[in-house]
Amino acid sequence: MQEKKPRRGIQSVEVAFRILNALQKSQQAMALKDIAPLAELTTSAANNYLVSLVRIGLAAADEKPGFYRLGPAALSLGVSAIQQIDGFEVVRREVTILRDTTRRSAAVTTWTDDGPISLFKQDGDQRGAFEFRTGLIPMLTTAAGKIYAARMPSNLTTPLIEQQWDAAFGGKPDACKFREDASRELKRKGFTAIVRSDLAGYVSLAAPVLDWNGDLRFTLSLAGTRASMQTEPTSAQVKSLLASASRATRALGGKAENGD
């Protein structure tokens, strides 16, 4: 069978993208001398490309001479790309990847007026009590619920936490402490975990998926048993979860808060 030859492209377009990619990684205007090495160009070559990019609006010259930033046309392209994103399709694919990679049950949830809801799930090799369910999920006894407690406004989460407290823990509700503990865990590890100490030994892990505003859009979750799920940050299952959440976040235009 004859191998397909790589399709020919326009090299200058790819070079120009390297310049734009360098600009988008900086939160402020960049000096020409700093742009050139990032784009693997000489200073004079980078300057020639920037002249054209400024002319068409993809780059803009800063008030400070010799400094450049992304232009209005780049912003328009970014907004259009965001509007074309099917966020659910992005995370749905990641759920399938997670299940296939870890062989554990995987699911995606989002926030609604009634609380977190599981939208889509794929069953792992272990069936029964360790499967996810679609529909509304608890705030207090799921890893995904802890992420919403950590990231969503307290006026939205406190009523649900207090409502579910007695069934989950008993005693007087302490929504503030629950939110603070969940927030510290998420900031420290980049994910949350629930490990039950009963005979069932249920374990769930969850990681956030953020949009271009840095807002929580979805959570991705894994579930299994204490014997089959490792919760250490260095475990293969946690790494797969964080990688999926990072890919989905970037696909939604966000900046991943955890590693790949």
TrEMBL record:
Residue span, IclR-ED domain: 73-254
Domain HTH iclR-type: 10-72
Biological process terms in GO annotation: negative regulation of DNA-templated transcription
Source taxon at top rank: Bacteria
Keyword field: DNA-binding, Transcription, Transcription regulation
Signal peptide: none
SUPFAM superfamilies (alphabetical): GAF domain-like, Winged helix' DNA-binding domain
Molecular function in Gene Ontology: DNA binding; DNA-binding transcription factor activity
Protein name stated in the entry: IclR family transcriptional regulator
Xref: Gene3D superfamilies: 3.30.450.40, Winged helix-like DNA-binding domain superfamily/Winged helix DNA-binding domain
